[in-house]
Write a structure and sequence with these properties.
single chain, about 190 residues, 9 helices, Crp/Fnr family transcriptional regulator, RmlC-like_jellyroll, cNMP-bd_dom, cNMP-bd_dom_sf
Length: about 190
Amino acid sequence: MNAQEILRTHINKVVDLTDEQFDYFFSLFKPVSFKKGQILISEGQDVDHEYFVLDGCLKTFYTNDSLKMHILQFATSQWWASDYNALYNDEKASFGVDCVADAQTLCLYSEDREKVCREIHEVEHFLRWRSNRGYVGLQKRILSLLNNNARSRYEELMAQHPELYNLVPKHLIAAYLGVSRETLSRLYHS
């Protein structure tokens, strides 16, 4: 599928746009390709955009004062990534976003998102649905971190997103699960 088909399929899960509405919405996106290891958003940066992943993998992460990385999200095809606190509250980025595997994305700037939301109710509905779904996913992840042991979190991640097993280096999966690389190794070898 090409970029238009991927985005349209994603949107059609929620709303039906006319061809004219979709073409206009799609025209607001800027295609951007990234290579593995490339930084999209750095902590402390102004953020006025978000990325829709067509192919590849991005990660959203936080590095604490002890330089330990905590991964909030992996974004693969048909996922979105940004520092949403910075994006919506006009603050500096607290999180970084970088490229785990070469990625093709569509970049949407805030001013374009706000403009299309004022003009096309269905797009606003879609974007609200997407934000709500992300919020629900985050709550589920927090509950999993609070209630489940490392093995359960690993099995849950692999059941929900099996593509990550071969796409994402194991030390990053360990950082996402909040365990050491050695603990993760024991989990997938036992």
